[in-house]
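User: Can you predict the 3D structure for this chain?
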Amino acid sequence: MLSVDPSGFDVASALAHYAEHGYARLGKVLDDTGLEALRERADDLMLGRVAYPGLFFQMDAPSGRYEDAPLGLGWQGPSLDYRKLEKLELDPRFRAWLENPLFERIARAVIPDDIVLYRAILFHKGQAGGSNLPWHQDGGRLWGISQEPELQIWTALDDAPVDGGCLEVVPGTHRGGLVTPLGGVIPPDRVAAADAEARRLLLPVQAGEVLLIHNHIWHRSGPSRTGQRRRAFSTCYMSAKTRCVRKKKAPRVFPPVFRREPGDTPPGR
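Assistant: Here is the predicted structure, written as structure tokens:
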């Protein structure tokens, strides 16, 4: 599904920008055939034409408020109003994309150990616009793991223009670590103190483009005001040494993706 040569792609420049700013653009690296295959499968899953035991679903809030999104309901029947679908590593098409050799080069350059998935997730803003996701960080106690992950790879399955629910970031904020030990949504007083509105950077993309996103960079997305859907596939990679530390449920087991073989040397950046 790659539209570029993974061995010849300039990973070093992308990773340097990522280290400094907390995000990087890879450009359009998903080819048109792969793009259509993933779009089709995303809708298959939402409409129940394809199903896997254990897939996680969350409906969007009719109000468009992030705070109103229902929790714990799961599958609510065929609908294109789901806000997110998780555990997409269960699907062969999404699994093939998240394991592609370009992503492997990048992940292994950032993470020196065997690599597992924290999550493989579809974020969806429907024709009504979807939810307004506030400034947040992906980590902290909320994530229930023994060490912080630091690499997410975000693939646009639809165009996400400035008014179409594109990602927004505050560059460099990943270097400050977590704002609160809990992680997740950043308190309004901290947003105001950091002058986040003035420092924000919008990242409009076309379908097939890919972004690297550091877990700790402040990021958000607004509703789509174009009347068009916005589907995006995000995968979080982390060290296989990471352990689930939650107590109320059985510990999670994180799916392996990239293993080092004896004698392997880290791939060149």
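The helical segments are 11-21, 32-46, 92-98, 101-110, 188-193, 196-199. The two ends are 21 Å apart (CA to CA).
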